[in-house]
């Protein structure tokens, strides 16, 4: 007892007593009937994978009871109890087992704000256990096998491995995965994922529990994927399972490797996302998301908001409107939409003749909202008057479908880019004060007319002086394209004397315009389109702009003579650098990888970012051009559109292109964007090896490189053995392995097994991992029967090749034996 006089001893005893009597001890995974959790106290699952306690998201001042990952430094909640009712003081709030056997959350005012809401016969034996899979389970005693309640049956926004989203067929009720409102508010948002109550065995995403805007497609038991989620074929993490009987249907999944941390979340962007944690970057890695494009999420930008896929942020308010809650917009929560900056005149002064002073702002090339009311009128002016008759009419449209007015908030407006047949014009109602006054306009108009007359005279004189030097008798067309006359291009190319390349679509010549800019002029052959149709198609192509696509400068349509004018690429086409005879100047691996990635980005733009999917149909090294910095530019991306139905006939007779043709071309079935993926994969093999995919050795035997590469990859062999020997092994093994795996996936026989080009981009960027692909059956057949199959070892100069002047054309001779049909 003498030792108790020591103040340090007294402090130690007090700390021991406090720890012994504390309501819960650190590291325990269980809450019993005589324990509670409050303040900074937590419970931790047995393996340390998950933690339960109070947390606050982001910069919020609100607290919630939730479960988060225990071994990830970035606190990432996977489940939240009191989503709609946060607490402010965690020290006076507690999570405990109540007298009736429920797990409840009590706030500082001793009000129960959340409960498991179950019935228990023996409340004193009830325990809450946090399992190592992230499931919080309420049991009638620690040894009880059947749970009274579990958090996996009540998911928030995260779908953990082992969990299921089921449809109870007896009640026709679905479990929901519901998004947070934004990154700092876990309250249920507008977007939810569920198994379709209609019994289609599909998962659907709904807006506000009413409007469906995405479906996974039905489950295919044979391929073990959902029909419209082909990305599942690239899975290397999960073991998927779908179950259906007379009582319920559900989908569940587990991880092949328990050391991996991965999850599905219903994101507040309205997309279902698959994410994996990367220890190397200490970040969550997005594997895929659905819908693929943000603006496909219904009403993502809220009322009077406009969604635009080009540029960030995706959402903006219509003119005359501003964000309703700026704070939420800063958190990428646009669901509250926009509100008027100025009230309508008919709202300000109801006694005025209804809405006559309100005006309309034209908004072209948009996706029209739903819930329109049709009106029987015969002109644009009458349609406007019909809208003005109602003070709650917010907009009208008048086109071939007649007059439609909207007497509601405008939802799901999307701004299209470029020329698209889907775009319509809508007229948005605004207060008159939002427009310049007529008195001010009078002075402006007079000044504009006077200035315009003077400017016109100057332009006429200038045009006369320039006419003889550069005859541009046609005006600029849509997309800033120039319409040339034939003799101007004949002069620019010195009568087409310097040929850059030649192929199945025509020849390419180097030219110099009067402003000293160098261009490549392509003479098209087999184009039977009329003048008007050709101009329309070229105008559409001219609006497509991307850093990895060759820019179209202009065109010429002179009777049967059709020409296209492109930017000149000083480093020519990729084949001139891959297959050159000079073995001392091989293309460096860094440049090759840059070319592969840039080409994939360009194709992704054509396939997914344009209003209409554009299939290139002729991807090969000859059609990949290199600028002064060796950045790749996909060429000829509009020729499939220009040539139309004749393209397949022309393509299949083009020498040197069959080696890149997807099997569906040969079988005659409908061709999709996955045909480009196949051709891209074949080109990747050539980028790796620096040689044509098919070659004859000195003994006359055909070597088919893709087959060799696929076998090495499938057997986890030495990938450096596949590399161009001129590089002397100077390439990162992980990049080489990645690009070879991608190539093998791209050339799978079944197009549904091939990745999309956007997935290819993510893999090459290191965002996604990719598992080992199987060896395509067609490659095995080619290897087994190579002596009977023709391989086009060299292509003639491509229709878009822009070769350096010293490029040799000697390699354009075919080195193949007699042929039979390629399988």
What is the CATH C level class of the largest domain, in words? Mainly Alpha
- Helix and strand content put the structural class at alpha+beta
Beta-strand content? 25-35%
The CATH architecture classification of the largest domain is: Orthogonal Bundle
Beta strands, count: 46
Give the low-pLDDT segments: 1-5, 10-27, 467-479, 644-656, 785-801, 803-823
CATH fold name of the largest domain: Transferase(Phosphotransferase), domain 1
Largest sheet: 8 strands, mixed
Q: State the separation between the terminal residues, measured CA to CA.
A: 95 Å
Physical arrangement of strands within the biggest beta sheet: 28-27-35-31-36-33-34-32
Helix content: 10-25%
Question: What is the fourth-level CATH superfamily of the largest domain?
Answer: Transferase(Phosphotransferase) domain 1
Provide the number of structural domains: 5
Indicate the overall shape. Answer: globular
- Oligomer status: single chain
The rounded Rg comes to 33 Å
Count of DSSP helices?
Answer: 17
Output mean pLDDT. 81
Q: Could you characterize the architecture of this molecule?
A:
It is found in: Cell membrane. The chain is an alpha+beta fold. The chain folds into 5 domains: 19-151, Bulb-type lectin domain (Agglutinin, subunit A), CATH 2.90.10; 158-292, no CATH class; 342-434, Hepatocyte Growth Factor (3-Layer(bba) Sandwich), CATH 3.50.4; 482-567, 2-Layer Sandwich (Phosphorylase Kinase, domain 1), CATH 3.30.200.20; 574-812, Transferase(Phosphotransferase) domain 1 (Transferase(Phosphotransferase), domain 1, Orthogonal Bundle). Residues 1-5, 10-27, 467-479, 644-656, 785-801 and 803-823 have low confidence and may be disordered.
